[in-house]
Amino acid sequence: MLRRSFASSARALLSRAAVTTPPPPLLQAARAGLASASSSAKGRKLKKHEIYPQWSSPAPRHELWQENSWLGAYYKLREGDPVADRNKAKLQGKRAPTRGNFIIQTLDAQEIESKVKEEPWRGMKWRPGCYLEVDHTPRVGESTERVVGVLLGYKRKGLGSSFRLLCHVEGTSVEYQFQTFSPLLLNVAVRKESQWRDGKRMLTQLRPEAARLPYPAPTRLERKKKVEDNDPSKYSGRKKGGS
C-alpha cells in the first residue's frame, strides 16, 4: 500500500512539474521554428535549418552560455587554484614553438616555390632508378664537376631535401648525397629513365651491383676559359728590367 501511494504521489508531482515548468529555450525555439516553417511553407520541401534551429548558422545559444578559453572549462572553473594556474602556464608556454614552426614552414614554402619556379629540376620529379647527370662544385671557388649515376632515392624535407646518387668513378663505387637546394648544386639532367618497377623508395639493393650497371657516358663539360688581357698600353710605362 505504501509503495502504491508513493508511486501515485510521485506521478502527480511529475505531472504538475511538467505543466508548471516551462520548456528549455532551445526546445522553445525549435517549436517556434517548426510552427513558423510549417505555416510559411506551401507545398515545398522544408530545409533542415527551418525545422531544427540548432542546425542554423550561428546556432542559438543558451542564456547562461559563456565563452571558454582554448584550455577548456577545466581551467575556467578552477581559476585561482595554484595547481591549475601552474599547469595552465605550462600549456601556454608549449604553444610558442608551434607558432614559430608555422612561421618557419611558411617561409620555407615560399622559398621552395621561388627556387623551383626558377629551376624546375629542383622539384625532384624523378623516379628511383633513373640515371642522372649532376653538375656540382665540391667547395666554394672550386671548378665544376660532372658525375653520372643511378638515383637510389630522395628525401623531401623542405629546404633540407636531398637525394642519393650511386656512381662508379675510376673503378671505385662512390655514393653521393646532394642537397637539392644547395647553391653548390648547379644542374641535374635525366639521362635515362628508370628500369625498376618494384615501387621502393630506396634502391639499396643496387649498391653491390654498382660496378656492373650500364652508366651513360657523361657529356663534355664546357669550362669557361680565362680571358687574358694583352693590352700593351697597360704595360707601356713599365721598364723591361724590373719594377
Structure description:
The chain is built from five helices and five strands. The chain is α+β, with helices and mostly antiparallel strands and 243 residues long. Among the domains are: 2-55, no CATH class; 120-212, SH3 type barrels (Roll), CATH 2.30.30. Strands 4-3-2-1-5 form a five-stranded antiparallel sheet, with no helix packed on it. A hairpin with a 2-residue loop joins β3 (162-169) and β4. It is elongated, with a radius of gyration of 38 Å. The N and C termini lie far apart (134 Å). 7% of the residues are buried.
Our measurement of the CA-to-CA distance between the termini, rounded to an integer number of angstroms, reads 134 Å
Main β sheet profile: 5 strands, antiparallel
- The pLDDT mean sits at 75
Quaternary status: single chain
Quantity of strands, as a count: 5
The 3D shape can be described as elongated
Helical proportion, percent range: 25-40%
Do you know the CATH topology of one domain?
Answer: SH3 type barrels
Number of helices: 5
> What is the CATH C-level name of one domain?
Mainly Beta
Order of helices and strands: HHHHHEEEEE
Query: In the CATH classification, which architecture of one domain applies?
Result: Roll
Residues in β-strands, percent: 15-25%
Give the class from helix and strand content and strand pairing.
alpha+beta
Which regions contain 5 or more consecutive residues with pLDDT less than 50? none
Radius of gyration: 38 Å
How is the largest sheet built, in terms of strand order? 4-3-2-1-5
